Amino acid sequence: QKIAIVGFGVEGRGALKFILKDPAHSKDEIWILDRNPAAASGAARRINPIRDARVCVKTGPQYLRALSTFDLIINLLGKRPSSSNQERAKTRRARDKFADLFFEHAKGTI
Q1: What secondary structure letter does DSSP report for 71?
Q2: Which of 27, 104, 110, 32 is nearest to 74 (CA)?
């Protein structure tokens, strides 16, 4: 499965940490997508390049260009979905999917 994390702020880092620890995603290809090129250096500092070679980073003005190639898009609360209605709907479904994944693995009462 190919997963995109849109935005690599606090929420994006948390999502990456969660996905990397989840055995169900051990073979997934994970992409961090962020407009800000500084996200690439922030991601590089947080990713163990040997263990997490499956994590890639794409930054710059075209960072959302290939959203249709992802199976799951994690668009966290601080990020605006892309302008296309189709991409907006796909992002909304992916966000709901990620919330379901979180609740499925959460321990305790929520």
Answers
A1: S
A2: 32
Q: Is 82 exposed, middle or buried (0-12, 13-18, 19+ CB in 10 A)?
A: middle
Task: Note the pTM of the prediction, 2 decimals.
Answer: 0.67
Mean pLDDT of 51-77: 82
Residue with tokens 């969660």: 18
Does residue 55 contact residue 48 with C-beta atoms inside 8 Å? no
Q: What is the pLDDT of residues 35-56, one digit of tens each?
A: 888 776 666 666 655 456 788 8
Length of the chain: 110
Two structure tokens written together for 32: 């961090």
Strand ranges of the sheet holding 29-34, from the earlier edge strand across to the other edge: 55-59, 29-34, 2-6, 72-75
- Per-residue three-class SS string for 74-88: EECCCCCCCCCHHHH
